[in-house]
Amino acid sequence: MNNHLGLSDMEFDLMSFFWEQTSPVTFAQILDFCNDVKGWNWAKTTAHTYITRLLHKNLLGMNSTKGMRRTYFAKISREAFMSSSVQELVDVSFSGSIKNLLLSLIPNNRLTRKDVEELHKILDQLAEPDDTSEN
Length: 135
Fold this sequence. Notes:
By secondary structure, this protein is mainly alpha-helical. It has helices at residues 9-20, 27-37, 44-56, 78-93, 98-105, 113-126, and strands at residues 3-4, 7-8, 25-26, 60-63, 71-74. The protein has two domains: 3-74, Winged helix-like DNA-binding domain superfamily/Winged helix DNA-binding domain (Arc Repressor Mutant, subunit A), CATH 1.10.10.10; 78-126, no CATH class. A hairpin with a 2-residue loop joins β1 (3-4) and β2 (7-8). α1 packs across α3. The radius of gyration is 21 Å and the shape is elongated. The mean pLDDT is 90.
């Protein structure tokens, strides 16, 4: 079983389903995705277990109105989830150092001249401007 930024394969696939939705979905829609699209052949109890896990991880929200079916939705966007997960990775595995993360990604500690030039452009765009003006 692989781990996708703190989620199991199944949890990540389920979250990907929720991230693709434009409105909250019913349990029946979730079960259809799990069984018809993914081919997992889950019982209702299995689907409930995974939904409950995602609710407890605060990644899913649930609407429950009296007399209406419950609907479920992603509480966090894919982008926000990825950003938070990468920040946690940097904090935990690289002592908060983005530099150390980037160095770990460079194969054989070598970059081509083109790679270096592209990185310079990106870093120049991200850098805060120098405040050299006097008041």
